[in-house]
Amino acid sequence: MTDSIFPRLVLTKGREKSLLRRHPWIFSGAVARMEGKARSGETIDIVDSQGKWLARGAFSPSSQIRARVWSFDRSEEIDIAFFERRLQQGQTWREWLAERDGLDSYRLIAGESDGLPGVTIDRFGNFFVLQLLSAGAEYQRASIVSALQTLFPTCSIYDRSDVAVRKKEGLDLAQGLVTGEMPPALLPITEHGMQLLVDIQGGHKTATISISAIAAWRPVAMLPTNASSTASPIPAVLPFLP
């Protein structure tokens, strides 16, 4: 018997060590069995082979990463308030950097490092670019969007979840306006006192604002297509020349 209200993912004996070190992924090879039925992305409890509670996460039956941890606190509910706390924490951590470096655009949420596996949110002024790459993130889409709207009431949100890795989670690709105004073809942003133009809708997802700042000093029209970084999912950045 168990007092858990969630389906339980039971680990093979000895495979709880990474969770005890606060690693947020559970691979399929570490799973002994599921107790109860869970839909893709649904919240589950993760327990060791003796039934001891370890974490609460999101179930992903189509992925080799069978679960991703939302919280190591058993008392923490995975609800809209949970996502509001995570987003507020991310904003608080980045405000000082934005003020110091003269930024109006930055990565608000960087997945696991901000306690939100599979979630990437970039801020470009009052436009927020959302990228949901895991089954759990997609399952919680409505809560994540609601939390963003609560913390940033006038924001516009654009979805760039058009990444092939979603297929490994059993998800279709997604792109388009979520709420608010459609971003312009080229959105002006400020970084280190320079003005840049960002293509939110059509840009690739692997370049970086910091690289674009360097590019702004060159007489070029656009970043090289092979520019690669994780700083921003939107690479098509043009120097803004007054």
TrEMBL record:
The keyword ATP-binding does not apply. This is Ribosomal RNA large subunit methyltransferase I. It comes from Raoultella terrigena. Its main location: cytoplasm. Gene3D superfamilies: PUA domain, RNA methyltransferase domain (HRMD) like. Its EC number is 2.1.1.191. It is found in: Cytoplasm. Belongs to the methyltransferase superfamily. RlmI family. GO terms for biological process: methylation; rRNA processing. GO terms for molecular function: methyltransferase activity; RNA binding. It comes from the Bacteria.
